[in-house]
Structures are given as structure tokens and as C-alpha cells.
Amino acid sequence: MNNRYVSNDPPDYIQRGEEIDLVHILKVLFYSKVWIAATTLLFIVCGIIIANTLTPIYKSDALIQVEKNPSLGILNKLSPVLPDGAGVSSESEVSLIKSRLVIGKTVRDLGLDIVTTEKTYPVANGVLQRLFGHQPAKITIAYLSLPEAYINQPLKLDMVQSGDFVLYVGESIVEGKVGVPVHTDDVDFLIDSAQLTENTSFIIIKRNEYSVIEEIKERLSIDTKSGGNGMLHLSMTGPEPVIISKILDNIAHNYLAQDVARKSEEASKSLAFLNKQLLQIKSNLIEAESKLNEFRKNNESVDLSLEAKFILDNVVAIDTQLNELTFKEAEISKLYKRTHPAYKALSEKKAILIAEKEKLNQRISAMPSTQQEILSMTRDVQMGNDIYLVLLNKQHELNISKASTLGNVRIIDRAVTQLKPVKPKKLLIVILSAMLGFLFSSGIILVRNMLIKGIRQPAELEMRDIPVYAVVPLAPELTKRRRCRAIPTYQSDELLANSAPTSLAIEALRGLRTSLHFAMLKAGNNILMISGTSPGVGKSFVCSNLAVLMAQAGTRVLLIDCDLRRGYLHRIFSKTESRAGLADFLTEGGNIESVIQKTEYSGVDFIGRGRMVTHPAELIMTDNFAELIRACSTLYDVVIVDTPPILSVTDAAIIGRYASTSLMVVRFEQNSIKEVEAGLRRFEQNDVAIQGTIFNGVEKRAAESYTYGDYSYQD
């Protein structure tokens, strides 16, 4: 079998380079620019609606400084070898601000665990409030105490009249009045104020405090300013600008208050310790002075030598320093381990002082016993007196510090809410909506373009050695779009050649008429068969308009509707289906002229399909059909035969044997190359030669450019 119409080569447009493919895509998009613009505009409108209905989110911020300041210990002036305080740890301060100690107090202070909403449609109410400024009813609850079983449970509150209300708590009903505290076995609460009308209902929820704290922590951001200067930038977001400003201010003040309280508590503990020590040291000092006076009285005014006085002064000075180092060690042990350099330096200094004291004790041991005893007593008195004076001074200092405790925290900037919401970004939403609309519509166009397997260019036929006699553009005048089908179909009782003789489709058929005139001069007879691969390709449109155009050129034309199943040419030429036609002649025989109809178009006669039959292929194979074709060929200059699709039924293969010129109509984007090749092979198997094709219904897109005025086309 001859495989003339089989080709494995890809279409020409697939063989193009990347640059041409990009141009092709841009042209496809440009052709659909109206649909893309409409879809993009729709997305923009949706974006505007969404941007204006989303809940606006505001941002409030405050600035806090945490100063570097050592604690109020008993001896806070450490020696030069020790650091001047522990410094400020930003991480620890951030953790302290976000602790339940600080935020929990804010929740209780502002009643954030109590949620009240008007019983209505919350989504619709929010949209109305944002679009038209509609203000919902509000109530302010000062405090609310409920049993644990009703935590996180919605409670209904109805306002009746004159500030009276009814609260439903489980099966209990609690009545009250705005501004008057309510106390029952289960409920303890107070409604401060109400902005509402009568017969308004509310839903009240007492939330779990821990969950409220966690929500605030998620919305609270703390930025530690660079440089280690102790600056903390607090920010918080939320839908209500006044509320978030109050929350942030309260958090800052609670953080400040706990710092002051901590410093005051430290001073109080140190002061209590000093008071206790002062009593003990004063008692010891009085006892030491009594012993010294008694000893001198018994030993008749024994005085110290100059050497003894020198040693005594040194011993007292060393003991004083050792006592100070002991206090310092008690403080530094809270900050550092024994292996820390500061702790080691203090220990080394203490060891040096102990060694010097040991040397002085050895010199004292060499003195007479009386001198040793009076030296020891005098030393005890002087040391006790020095320590007592030092602690007495510290007592005064701590009293002053406690009375004027400020803490290390300072609020630099109070909480201020920005006038404009930080979210949603309306312009960004609209821009993204426009981009999404453009990408969505473009994607739909490109995907649809990729899914279409039909032929788009006549070059796809010609590269497979399939001649194209004419490229007929889509005739919008006769196109009817079906809702569930995007392929246009010609169904009209009026000929385009008559109603729109200047249409580009008619101009293309005039070019076909010229080509057929010369082609049929060399043909064996004047029979022209026009078929197609599948239904709806427009073969009847081509046949009817071509017949009229040939008649206008002075040719006597007979048009035969051989589609005995779905033919509709009788609606154009005879306006009735009751008249005898081809099926009647093939069934009953008779006079040929009885089935030939004169039409309103000069030079065009017509044979309709006739009545409906159940076996059209068998009728066409009868001698009556052959007799009809031979007779008509002698009576007319051209006989045009409109046949059914070759891939649907075999009628066209039978009729094609009587025609010397046969053409096949191929529909733009409807018929694939495989369908066309299958149709041609079907004709070839039945010894029917197809001279060429008619590329019909071509849409003039930017992607495929044709010039119909001069009957030519180009890639």
C-alpha cells in the first residue's frame, strides 16, 4: 500500500528555534488580550474588595532603657580588681518582659481575659464596620469571676431596658444592672458601662489566662538595639489601635514596677541584715570595752609601748580589710564561680593579708604577757568600734536608697500606635491580584493552546505533500458559538456569497473557483466531490457557496446533497424537506428531472437528500445512482457532490469513484494531521484520488498571519 500521506516529521512550527517559540507565545497572548484584560480586571476588583474587607492590623511601639547598675549590696564598692557590676543581659531582660509575671499582671489589669462580642453575624458586621463605619454595640466589664467549668465557655447576656441585663450561666439566670456589682455563689462581676440599644444580646467568654498570655507573647516583639547599650524596642500588633497601645504601655510600666520592687526588696533585706549585725557588734563592743577598763584598773594604768601601738594599728587595719573582703566574697560568690579571675584575685589579696597578720601575731607573741593581753583587748575594742561605724554608715545609706529606689529601668518612649495599619498592604494586594489575574488568564490561554491538537497552519499539510487548494478564513457573519463547545459551526439558511459577497471567506472561495477551473479542464469528467474527515468541518458551506460563485461566473452548476443522514442543504435552496430528493430517486427510480430543483440563484440547480432512509450506503451503490451521475454530468457544466465525512461512513469512498476531481475539507484546530492522513488513506484504499484539501475556518490570529485579499498566506 502506498504510504504517501504518512510522515513522522514534526510540524514546521515545532522545528522553530526558541526565539520564534517565544514570539509565537507572545502572539497567542496578544490575540487573547481582551480575555486576559477582562480576567485581570476581575482579579483586580476582587483584590480591591479583599483589601478593603480584611481586618486592618495596627502596630504600636515603645522604647525602654535598662541601665547598667550594680546591686545594693552591703559593700557595693568592690576593689579595682573586680568588675563594676554584672552588666545588662539583653536576653534575660527580654525573657523577663515576656514572663507571666509581667504579662499576666497586664492581662489582669486590663481584663484581657474577658471577651465580649455583640451577638450578630461577625463577618458581615466586620465588613460593614470597615466599609461604612458601622459601630457595633459595646459593653465594658470591670471584672468577672466564674467557676473553672465555665472558663472558655460562651455565656449569653441580654440587655433588656434601662441598663438592666440578664446573664445565663449554665442553668442559672443572673439579673443585674449596669454599674452595680453582682455577687452570687457562682458569679462575681461588674459591668462598668454599655454603648448599646435595648434588646441587644452579647456573648461573653472568660478565657484561660495562660492562653491569653501566650497570644500576647506571639504578638509582642522585642528588639535589642545594637551596641549593648541596654535599649529595648517593644512593638505589638493588633486590630484595635487603642487596645494595643494600652497593652504595651501597661507591659512597660509593669516591667518598671517589678524592677523597682526588686531593688526595694534587695535594700530591705540588706537593711534587715545590717540591723541584726549592728546589735550584735554593739553588744560585743560594750563587752570588749568593759574587759579593757577592768584590766587597766587591776594593773594600775599599763600603757602600750610605741612598738606595740604600731603593731596594734597594723593588726586593726588588716582585720578591717579582711572583714571587708569577707563581705565582698559573699557578694561576688553570687555572681562568679571560684575559678573566675575576679574571685581568684580576691582570694589572693585575702591570703596576703592573712600572711601579714600572721607575721604581726608572731611579733606580738614575743612581747611580755601583760603587753600581749592589753594589746589584744585594745585591738578588739578598736576593731569593734571601726566595724560598728562602717555598718552604721551603711545603715544610713541603705535607708536613703530604700526611700529613693528607682531601679535600673527607664521608659524612654511611651507606647504610640501608628496612624496607618501595617497590614493589609492594600496596594500590594491589588498589584499581586493583577499579577495573579494576568498569570492565571495567560496560563489558561497557553494551556488551552497546548492542548489543541488540531492543525493550525496549512504548512503542516504541505510539508506532508498534501496540497492545499484554498485557505478559507472564519466567517464571523455565520458563526454560532455553542456554550459547551468552542468550535464554531455554520448553520444558516442564507448563503454567505449572497449576504456578504465581499467577505474574506467568499474571496478565498473565489480563488478556489479559479484553481478548480483549470484543474477540471484536465480531469476526466466534470464531477467535483467535496468531503471531509469528520462532521462540522464546513464542507456543506464550501459546496453551497462554491456552487453560487461558479454560477456567477457563467457556469451551469448542479449541487447534489449526498449526505443522506445529516444533509441540510435543502434548507438553503428548497426551503422545504417534503419535496422528493436523492433518496427518493435511488429508492423508487423514475425521471431524473423530477428531483432536480430550480433555485433562486441563477445558474444553480439542486438535488436535496430526500426522505430519511436507514441504509444510505446501499442506495448509493445501486445503478440508479450511477445513472443519475452520468445524466447530470451531461446536463451541467459542473456537478458538485456534497458527501458525508469519510471517517464516519463509507459513502464518500463510493461516490468518489464517479468523480474525477475530489477535495477534502480540513477544519482549523479541529482536525489533526492523523485524522487527515487516515481520511486520505481511506480514500486511497478505495482507489479514490484526492487532489487536495481546503483549509477551512481559519481564525486570523496574531500567531498565524495570512493575507486573504490576494488569496495567499504566509507563516
Automatic annotation (TrEMBL):
SUPFAM superfamilies: P-loop containing nucleoside triphosphate hydrolases (SSF52540). Residues 528-673 form the AAA domain. Pfam families: AAA_31, GNVR, WZC_N, Wzz. The keyword Amino-acid biosynthesis does not apply. Belongs to the etk/wzc family. GO terms for cellular component: plasma membrane. It is an enzyme of class 2 (transferase). The chain crosses the membrane at residues 34-54, 427-447. Residues 18-110 form the Polysaccharide chain length determinant N-terminal domain. GO terms for molecular function: ATP binding; identical protein binding; non-membrane spanning protein tyrosine kinase activity. Its EC number is 2.7.10.2. Gene3D superfamilies: P-loop containing nucleotide triphosphate hydrolases. Residues 271-298 form a coiled coil. Keywords: ATP-binding, Cell inner membrane, Cell membrane, Coiled coil, Kinase, Membrane, Nucleotide-binding, Transferase, Transmembrane, Transmembrane helix, Tyrosine-protein kinase. It is found in: Cell inner membrane. Residues 370-450 form the Tyrosine-protein kinase G-rich domain. It comes from Enterobacter cloacae. It catalyses: L-tyrosyl-[protein] + ATP = O-phospho-L-tyrosyl-[protein] + ADP + H(+). It comes from the Bacteria. This is Polysaccharide biosynthesis tyrosine autokinase. The keyword Phosphoprotein does not apply.
